[in-house]
Amino acid sequence: MKVLFTTDLHGAKRKYEGLLDVAQQAQADVVINGGDMLPSVGNLLSQGDYITNYLDAHLREFDEAGIYYLCYLGNDDLRIFDEIFEKTCNKYPLVHNLAQCKIEIGDIEFIGMNWVVDYPFRLKDRCRMDTIDYIFQEQYGTALVSTTDGLKEIKDWFSYARTLPTIEEELNTLVTPNNIKQTVYVIHMPPYKLGLDKCGHGAEVGSKAIYDFLRSRQPRLSLHGHIHESPEYSGKWHAKIGNTVCIQPGQLTSFTYVTIDLKTMQFDRHVTGV
Ligand SMILES: [Zn+2]
What we know:
By secondary structure, the protein is of the alpha/beta class. The chain has a single domain, classed as 4-Layer Sandwich (Purple Acid Phosphatase, chain A, domain 2). It is built from seven helices and 16 strands. The chain is globular, with a radius of gyration of 17 Å. The two termini are 26 Å apart. The strands form four sheets. It has a six-stranded mixed β-sheet with strand order 4-3-2-1-15-16. A six-stranded mixed β-sheet has the order 5-6-11-12-14-13, covered by helices on one side. 25% of the residues lie in helices and 25% in strands. Helix 2 packs parallel to helix 3. The structure holds zinc ion. The site of zinc ion has 6 residues, from loops.
């Protein structure tokens, strides 16, 4: 089975437009879009229109081409649009919202999770403490969460966040696969320690909980994103935890994706001129 993985497209139509072509050239059976799919500049409250007016037709193209498309929204995609996103995915038999779900294709089990470890930025829709003893970073401003009435301020974010499940707890509530060796996790947040989580200012912000989860469970593959610039700053876009291959392709100005043959476990990163 051949997989094409891209992530953090943030609504860039020139990148979306190239995706079907490269998927067909690579003879991909499955395309995985790992979150932060919608425009994140301008009015975030119009992301729902992007789903309806653009993404819907994009997803339909893959369904018509006979290519599976597994995807979920990310931390910059407002939670108030989860429902319309889910409904849009459900229109097409080959398109699946992978957030906190398992999809089986052939003998491979794909499991997704789109919660992220808290960060200094204000939008907190999908933020969690990593573990129960997590130490928060200094914040850039008052926390915001999306509601149907618009973005709402959370005055005491740290107290509020302590009432939410941690990343560690969220991982433990995911469905258990039947065969871990044939399982691919798609987790927007990267693990720590591997150079897949390096920010432009030098900090390494990856998740301890995700690292520990992968180390103990040992799936075949894990796919990550979130820190767009990490490969440029760490020089790494893949690593191993025991027998598990971890991939984080990054996403800067050039359209970037990875092709993976799950049978041979050969994989290549493509940074296109687009
Ligand atoms: Zn992200």
